[in-house]
Amino acid sequence: MQRIRVQLLIVGLWLLTTAVIAQKPTGGAVRWVTFRQLDSLQRAQPRPVFVYLNTSWCGYCHMFSRTTLRHTDVVRRLNEEFYCVNFDAESREPVVFQGKTYQFRPTGVGTGQHELATWLMQPYNDAAYPALLFRNSNFDPLTAVFSALPRQSFETLLDAVATRHR
Asked: What is the pLDDT, as a whole number, of residue 110?
């Protein structure tokens, strides 16, 4: 009797694991570009831009990266329709973008924000992480969401941005 319980437990765990994995298909990786590359890419082939602003301490950012940004359909659409920039809002590295150099600015002991992140979130009063920012091919703001979205909601957002950009 004990042996049957153990076997049922093993089969149950295997089925549960299989079901969880099946819900999260992975489709390779998003092709991230840097801000430095963006200008030349836009000259060659204009596209809308998805800027993913995140931080190392943001749990919702990690969740969004591990789930939505790894889903097959999301990865395919982002790679085919957008230029994608993944940027740590607390990066200490200077970034040159559109002829200007942006730096990290300390705001306290061991904390601060990159000037580029501050500039990108400037049009929005309620900025938080993760910041999912969409810009047109001229880098004018299209829309922004300050939340980790599930796949279906993110795909709806991609539909809206693609329609607006046409």
From this structure: 85
